[in-house]
Amino acid sequence: MPYGDPWRMIRKIVHNNLNITATKSYVPYQDLESKALLVELLDIPELFIDHLRRYTHSLTTQMVFGFRTPSIDDPKLKQLFWVHGKTSAALLDLYPVLRSLPDAVLSERRHAKQLHEKSSELFVGLWLDVKKAIKNGTAKPCFCVDLVRAQEEENISDELAAYISGSILEAGSDTTAAELVSFTQAMILFPEVAKAAQEELDRVCGHRLPTLEDWPNLPYIHGCIKETLRWMPTVISGAPHGLIRDDEYMGYTIPKGAGVLPNSWAIHNDPKRHPDPRRFDPTRYIHDQSTAAESANNPDPTKRDHFGFGAGRRVCQGMHVAERSLFLAISRLLWAFDFRPARDEAGEEIIPDPENLTEGTLSQPKPFPASITPRNKEKVTLIREEWAKMEALLDEEQQWEILPEGLKWKDVKTVPKEA
How far apart are CA 18 and CA 5, in angstroms? Predict the structure, then answer.
């Protein structure tokens, strides 16, 4: 969507409902899902990639639509993976003249129409489900409950509201999961980092699970988060920007309307900014305890920690949510588990290749095996005890039956349009 009044209206809505203060009420969702992740890794560690994807997707469906995704086999989750896994209109963006070709010749346009139908079916269905839940009095606190109000105030159609919420679902699910897969690979390739992080966690947290309150006392863990986002940026080309006026760069004229890619990968791997860039080294940030939002707002780009959340007007508005999710996952995973290379039938270690990445808009390591084992029996016992407390709040379908303390319910008395 180009910069203009509709874009500003959508950004305002998203900011009002995804700002740092508003999203603090969703911390109980993040707490529950990170504990569910630990239990899943205890039970079936070899499916760690599936567990990481379920973790981030369930977090996002709760914060956006108010329901959990308790299983990787959830039909809606599979539908989202299908939509997200298809190629985009990159060819048309690079060569706009191709847009004049008929559908019979341009397969990308036919594919785009099919993709639109599938994504519309998913997103509109999820949006209308929330409106029905509000009418029935069963809706849980989430972004869409607040979006219902904005729909009336801004005269937004159901389709646009569905795509606003659906875009947040897409942006918040796969990207964070990809970073956690990258982090897991880094812990295998750089075991000294995992050891140093565990020493910090043991010193600060002891035998209890890390919490968000530990953040100021875990600078090395904070460094692990920043380094993960630098070492393996999910959107390696960076979010595309469009010029609103003619510009010039290094003698090149860039016309108004042209697309510009920040190239996060090149910035993150510039040895002048980051010496030995392919080495995973959290100590790069040991003296930088700025949050993602604080760093993103730094007017001096040379002092940015990384560009994993984008820059400028297109910067990720949910970066503080993602940062909290990464902190809880990374700190608790390292507190609970050891990460080692898997072994083949001959007993030889299988070392993952950090250059073997998926292709497409979102990049991450291709699936690799790993050995993930609990650090000791005491941690296993505590994890299961903590999950038992969480399960007591869920119904038989593993959805919230009792809202935990901290979640804010905002009363919605009207639904603007019939669902």
Answer: 20
Against a cut of 0.85, is the pTM above it? yes
Instruction: Give the integer Cα–Cα distance in Å for 274 and 75.
Output: 42
Q: Which residues pair with 249 in a beta bridge?
A: 252
Q: Is 401 within the bounds of a domain?
A: no
- Chain position carrying tokens 């319910």: 409
CB-CB neighbours of 313 under 10 Å: 13
Binding residues: 316
- And the tokens for 351? 């070392």
Band of the pLDDT at 8, cuts 50, 70, 90?
confident
CA 142/CA 123 separation, integer angstroms: 15
Domain count, the chain: 1
Alpha-carbon distances of 125 from 64, 113, 122, 367, rounded to whole Å? 13, 18, 5, 31
Instruction: Pick out the residues of the known binding site for heme.
Output: 316
Q: For position 337, what pLDDT does the model report?
A: 99
Q: Which domain holds residue 132?
A: 5-348+361-391
> Can you tell me whether residue 362 is helix, strand or coil?
coil
Query: Which amino acid would we find at residue 383?
Result: I
CB count within 10 Å of CB 414 equals 9
Q: The domain that contains 249 carries what CATH number?
A: 1.10.630.10
